[in-house]
Amino acid sequence: MTSLHIPIRPAWICAGCSQEWPCHTRRAQFLAEFERATVSLGLLMGSHLVQASQDLPAARAGELYVRFLGWIGRPPRRDNRGPWIDRA
């Protein structure tokens, strides 16, 4: 095994820990790497979702959505008074 948490395609299993990719470790790495760029992270993971849906045609769309996008936090919403705030 490798310490890199990258996907092994077409099964979308993590090369580092053999869990479904993105595994918990890779999710934490992504969240740290894209701390102030959740939209960019969403776009990246959306592209992985498209690739995974092609590689895993029997997988349910909702399950893939949760797996690839459901764990990404919501971006802060703008309050009418000005600055960006997080109301989550």
How would you sum up this structure in a few lines?
The chain has one domain.
Can you describe what's shown?
- With 88 residues, this protein is mainly alpha-helical.
- It has one domain (7-72).
- 41% of the residues lie in helices and 9% in strands.
- The protein has helices at residues 24-33, 38-55, 61-68; strands spanning 7-8, 13-14, 77-78, 84-85.
- Strand 1 and strand 2 (13-14) form a beta hairpin.
- The radius of gyration is 15 Å and the shape is globular.
- The protein starts with 6 loop residues before the first strand and ends with a strand.
| Shape annotation | globular
Give the domain tally.
1
Largest sheet strand order? 1-2
Q: If you average the pLDDT, what whole number results?
A: 87
Note poorly predicted spans.
none
How would you characterize the largest beta sheet?
A: 2 strands, antiparallel
Helix content: 40-55%
Radius of gyration: 15 Å
SS element count, helices: 3
Strand content: 5-15%
Return the structural class.
mainly alpha
Q: Gap between N and C termini, in Å?
A: 38 Å
Series of H and E elements: EEHHHEE
How many strands?
Answer: 4
What's the SSE blueprint?
Blueprint: E1 7-8, E2 13-14, H1 24-33, H2 38-55, H3 61-68, E3 77-78, E4 84-85
Antiparallel strand pairs: 1-2, 3-4
Helix pairs in contact: 2-3
Which terms would index this structure?
single chain, 88 residues, mainly alpha, two-stranded antiparallel sheet, 3 helices, 9% strand
